[in-house]
């Protein structure tokens, strides 16, 4: 007898029908549930072939691998880190083109002047975005290169562990923390720019993560100590922005890595939101003092 249209080649009378396609008889079976299944409904497994129902059930019951921070493990590949580097480089290129100078890109660039951290503009003109946007501007290629190299090294290790969402939160809250520190304690007529606040926040995050994992903190402390010394010795460096980012990044990360396992995601969201609210309140307080 010739199999009806749609049946697998070689079907014989008396063979069972595929549950998902009753018009198709088959001699194949799922190695997991042993039900008959046509070739269209089978998927290759580690041993034999499984039907699509068993494959879907296995996906639902398999526990997702998570890091000690609670992030889903997605492997060593990074996405946020190269994206942040690309944005910083793009901003530098735009300011260099506007100013007509690769070294003196701050002078003559309308974009730089509109986004740099300038305390009078924040307090009087309510241009609060400068607290964050200044972190994507740099004074010259050397300033940019130092920060981007540090961002690449730290992001390469932290982003896979923290996950993209938590890593992004630590970066931007640290960036805001550095800007707020400059706004609170810095000279009112000094222009400040650079991703250093966020980078130092990642350094603080690295130190807290190392302590949480009970690893030797020596290398992390050495990197932080060296950069703090450079902040004191090199001209034109905003020590306040560095320390503000470092403190906020370390404190925020402590809230993330020591969050209780039960309802960890909720607890971590509250910690992040609380840090942002605190920084915003400090900005309003400082603005009141300046006006």
From TrEMBL:
Its main location: membrane. The keyword Acyltransferase does not apply. The lineage of its organism: Bacteria, Bacillati, Actinomycetota, Actinomycetes, Pseudonocardiales. One of its GO terms (molecular function) is peptidase activity. Signal peptide: none annotated. It comes from the Bacteria. One of its GO terms (biological process) is proteolysis. Residues 126-257 form the Peptidase S54 rhomboid domain. The chain crosses the membrane at residues 83-103, 136-155, 167-185, 191-211, 218-234, 240-259, 266-285. Belongs to the peptidase S54 family. It is found in: Membrane. Keywords: Hydrolase, Membrane, Protease, Transmembrane, Transmembrane helix. InterPro entries: Peptidase_S54_rhomboid_dom, Rhomboid-like_sf, Rhomboid_protease_S54. This is Rhomboid family intramembrane serine protease. It is a multi-pass membrane protein. It comes from Saccharothrix yanglingensis. Residues 1-20 are annotated as: Disordered.
